[in-house]
Amino acid sequence: MKSKYAGYINLNPLNGVIYPSSIQNILIKNFIETDLKGIFYLSPTEILQAKYSITLQTLISKETKVKGIVMLSSFLLTKNLSERKKIYTKLLKSKKHMYFILDELFIKNKSDIDKVEEFIIFNSNFFTDTKKKLSKIELAIIKKFQSISFV
Length: 151
What we know:
Shape: elongated
Strand content: 5-15%
Oligomer: single chain
Strand order of the largest sheet: 2-1-3-4-5
CATH topology: Rossmann fold
Number of helices: 6
CATH architecture: 3-Layer(aba) Sandwich
Structural class: alpha/beta
Number of domains: 1
């Protein structure tokens, strides 16, 4: 019997682009049916004004009878690390999987969480944006070390 998977739609910008829910639904449905060989269950949309990922929390709960949750990217998870850790813990306790289509990543066990977190960290703006001007704090730190010579 084929497993059921729920899509998860989040309308927050992803790399500066807001993917319409219809496009997300098409991508998620195609991934579930083609790559996972599963049954596409539903794709609720996260409430944009919510402080916490209420919709995602509901999908992860034991009451929602799906094998996993599929979303476009890990960057649609909350930016707050402690909140992400709660999501990961709940996901593992409910024995569900999570798939990130564009990142080509998934979480099926604890070691997969490290891969997702590394991806989030090393693809964040801090590591990928070109810095053209230093902040006051950064300038102050550099000023402290200007008199040090490494030669």
